[in-house]
Design goal:
With about 375 residues, the protein is of the alpha+beta class. It folds into 3 domains: about 50-185 and about 240-260, Chondroitinase Ac, Chain A, domain 3 (Sandwich); about 190-240, no CATH class; about 260-360, Sandwich (Immunoglobulin-like), CATH 2.60.40. Helices cover about 25% and strands about 40% of the residues.
């Protein structure tokens, strides 16, 4: 009987110890839950923005012959399957899928997280584009020495250059200038060449033809001449809507850009009203030029990183937008800002409902 009692007591002690161990394990697990890291938080922010970005256009074409595809904004891509190969050199499928994203204004650039800077220098965009080509889900690339011929929309009269873009680990785009410039499809307009003895007019051949056809001193236009005149004017109008084809050396992010070179520039700093935010994306959306700048705020391991904004034109009219995510909720700051010299702006991030978040991104 004593032995049975002893066994019961020992069993109770073991059970109690096991229960205490389970409680301790639960406590340790609870106390040592991994804290959210900065990159994870930034990924959440970037994922939020992806919901509102400009959607891709996709085109399926034959892999047996050259084809042209045209985007909604006028981008013309000439696809030659003979210039393409898979990344491992294996044959690709019967069809080729072309992905195109066209961003021609500040709102589209902002929503697609496509800031317009090159090594912190402000760019003015004449259109940013994403081009990719696959076949049966396999990534394609250009063969050595080959290129992709693309005619991009002409949305500005300023001289523009080709830039290629790469995203960093924080999702920010940085643009690097290529040694190629965008050229008009139209020949130069008439200009006067002066010498000692003569002054000669150099005019475009098409303009000469049109002037001849419209000359009032000749007989009335025939139906054939009227049609020719109408066709010529239409061709000139169409030619002025896109640049001359440019040869791309790679797929991915492409930008038609120029540096915004003005004498009076400044830096802009900002601070968050709530120090408990781990990360935030902060944007300057310019109102008077086709440009967007982005800065990133990080706070981790008792350290803070706040790059602010550099080389901003003084007097520029912008919209300052910042947003962060905490505990599954979205916090936003939005205000108009005219850039002044060496300012520090206090960002007051407030919780926004889903409907309010939609309005912010749909109105930009």
């Amino acid at each position: 009987m004593k032995n049975i009692l002893r066994l019961l007591i020992i069993g109770a002690c073991i059970s109690s110890c096991n229960n205490n161990k389970t409680t301790l394990d639960n406590k340790l697990t609870s106390d040592n839950k991994p804290k959210p890291d900065a990159k994870t938080e930034i990924r959440k922010i970037n994922d939020l923005l992806k919901q509102y970005e400009e959607p891709s256009q996709t085109f399926k074409v034959s892999a047996d012959k050259p084809t042209q595809v045209t985007g909604k904004q006028g981008t013309i891509i000439s696809v030659n399957p003979a210039d393409l190969t898979t990344e491992n050199g294996q044959p690709f499928g019967k069809n080729i899928e072309v992905e195109l994203k066209e961003l021609t204004n500040q709102e589209q650039l902002f929503r697609t997280n496509a800031q317009t800077t090159s090594n912190r220098q402000l760019l003015v965009s004449g259109g940013a584009y994403f081009i990719n080509i696959t076949s049966d889900g396999k990534q394609l690339k250009l063969k050595d020495g080959k290129s992709l011929s693309v005619e991009f929309p002409k949305i500005t009269t300023n001289k523009m250059s080709l830039f290629y873009g790469q995203r960093d680990t924080l999702g920010q785009l940085n643009w690097q200038k290529a040694k190629q410039n965008f050229e008009s499809k139209l020949k130069p307009k008439a200009k006067v060449v002066s010498t000692k003895d003569t002054i000669a007019n150099e005019t475009d051949e098409i303009e000469d033809i049109l002037e001849y056809i419209k000359n009032e001193d000749r007989n009335p236009l025939t139906k054939k001449e009227k049609k020719a005149l109408k066709d010529q004017e239409k061709n000139i109008a169409l030619a002025d809507k896109v640049y001359k084809a440019i040869e791309l050396k790679q797929f991915g992010w492409i930008n038609c850009d120029r540096f915004y070179d003005v004498p009076n520039k400044t830096n802009l700093q900002y601070a968050l009203n709530d120090k408990s935010f781990i990360s935030a994306n902060v944007y300057l959306v310019f109102k008077d030029i086709n440009s967007v700048m982005q800065s990133c705020y990080l706070s981790f391991k008792n350290k803070k990183f706040n790059s602010g904004f550099q080389n901003i034109p003084i007097g520029a009219k912008t919209e300052l937008i910042a947003f962060s995510i905490r505990n599954g909720k979205t916090f936003i700051h939005k205000s108009d800002l005219t850039i002044k010299a060496n300012e520090t702006i206090q960002l007051v991030l407030k919780e926004f409902s889903q409907d309010q978040v939609d309005k912010v991104f749909q109105s930009n």
